[in-house]
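Tokens as discussed.
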């Protein structure tokens, strides 16, 4: 199971990033509009998330919603692979030592540790 957990974790991270990336692009467009310091962004062009998605895809093409997704997917592949792989490896180790999946404090502690460790490894550079 541990090897599959690493692979499934990476695949899940990449898939989640691919699905959520257009919404992140929309959020950033909404955040930078109306800036006083840069004249290119002073107008309020977008009215909400879905309006932004529709307007950007119609004016610039759907591909523009995914600009930069390769780097985000690579980050998630690294982070997701480590996070899920470490979690299920430690959980398997806990179960082999006689622990129970139903013991919430240990499961939470394993999740916190695997998330922290994968963040340190994945985002340290």
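Sequence:
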């Amino acid at each position: 199971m541990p090897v599959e957990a690493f692979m499934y974790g990476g695949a899940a991270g990449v898939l989640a990033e691919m699905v959520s990336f257009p919404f992140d692009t929309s959020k950033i467009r909404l955040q930078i509009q109306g800036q006083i310091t840069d004249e290119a962004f002073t107008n309020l062009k977008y009215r909400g998330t879905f309006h932004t998605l529709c307007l950007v895809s119609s004016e610039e093409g759907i591909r523009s919603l995914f600009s930069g997704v390769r780097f985000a997917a690579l980050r998630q592949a690294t982070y997701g692979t480590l996070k899920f792989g470490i979690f299920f490896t430690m959980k398997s180790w806990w179960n082999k030592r006689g622990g129970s999946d139903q013991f919430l404090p240990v499961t939470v502690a394993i999740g916190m540790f695997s998330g922290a460790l994968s963040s340190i490894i994945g985002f340290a550079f």
